[in-house]
Amino acid sequence: MNDQSPTRDERIEKLKGLGSSRKRVEDVRFTQGKGNYVDDIKMPGMLFGDFVRSPYAHARVKSINADAARALPGVVAVLTAADLAPLNLHWMPTLAGDKQMVLADGKVLFQGQEVAFVVATDRYIAADAIELVEVDYEELPVVVDPFKALAPDAPVLREDLNGIMSGAHGPRKHHNHIFLWEVGDKEATDQALDSAEVVAEEMVYYHRTHPCPLETCGCVASMDKVNGKLTVWGTFQAPHVVRTVASLLSGIEEHNIRVVSPDIGGGLWQQGRGLSRLCLRHRGLYRHGQAGEMGRRPDGQPDGHGLCPRLLDEGPDQRHA
């Protein structure tokens, strides 16, 4: 430090704190239309993708006829789960220790689920092509209440788990029960609840929402065949994790993959539920409702020492934790 360096008190005064306005540094380029989003990325020979989505919340996929779509000039490929299965890419693991379909494999489990993926030379041809894909569905009973999903006579959603009573975090208690996730000190929590003088139970419902971000999920991938390096631009909030997953799926060494997160028009899952896939644009936004039970033992009022929440998720694939 020298005589011209501000003192500690001067730096603190300039920093300010709660209740003080902060100077924003990115607003100028955004308000002038100079943001750089995934949709702004243009590359020579770039292909575009679009999804065929299910109009049903629960249905069996009897057949998919993509001949008309493939015959449309400009269409490069139409992919279904049958095309991904030989590569073992039709089901992918989830962060919760479960797995989910990349493209509908025999069934759809939520309205808007991706059934087929069209690749074309421009986005308008891709949009036209998805209308030409003919999908024959057998509509099945739906589950719209997370509590009724656990009823003995509730429709079986995940047929791939039929007869499997062990989940990622413990035993499954019902054919629609995927896993039970417990965290914390159970004995200390039970002791705190047992010693409470009064008991109260509360059911908190998180209603369905439909956020409106500036953009939906999307990404652009470019593979340099000369040096064997892959570059991916996407709406990623965890680019390092995406790079690791991309390496595991593709077999490309992690140091040969570069993941770029440009300006992102929304975050914290509001852009759309589900994992980002190697495509340009997710056109739909689908959100879910959640219901949670917060219970206390029948001998005491909550005293702030412990809380036992139970969350049931009626998310887009109708799975309930």
Query: What would CATH call the architecture of the domain at 43-142?
Result: Alpha-Beta Complex
The major sheet is characterized as: 3 strands, antiparallel
Averaged pLDDT: 81
Q: What fraction of residues sit in β-strands?
A: 15-25%
- What is the CATH class designation of the domain at 43-142? Alpha Beta
Secondary-structure content class: alpha+beta
Q: Give the termini separation.
A: 57 Å
What characteristic shape results from the CA principal axes? globular
Radius of gyration of CA atoms, rounded to a whole number: 25 Å
Tell me the strand order in the biggest sheet: 1-7-3
Helix content: 10-25%
* Model regions low in confidence, pLDDT < 50 over at least 5 residues: 273-311, 314-321
Secondary structure: number of strands: 16
Overview of this structure, please?
The chain has 321 residues and is of the alpha+beta class. Among the domains are: 43-142, Aldehyde Oxidoreductase, domain 3, CATH 3.90.1170.50; 148-208 and 288-313, Aldehyde Oxidoreductase, domain 4. The chain has 7 helices and 16 strands. It has a 3-stranded antiparallel sheet with strand order 1-7-3. A 3-stranded antiparallel sheet has the order 6-2-8, with no helix packed on it. The longest helix is centred in the C-terminal third of the chain and has 12 residues, at 239-250.
Question: Which key phrases capture this entry?
Answer:
24% strand, Aldehyde Oxidoreductase, domain 4, globular, Aldehyde Oxidoreductase, domain 3, disordered C terminus, 3-stranded antiparallel beta sheet, alpha+beta, 321 residues
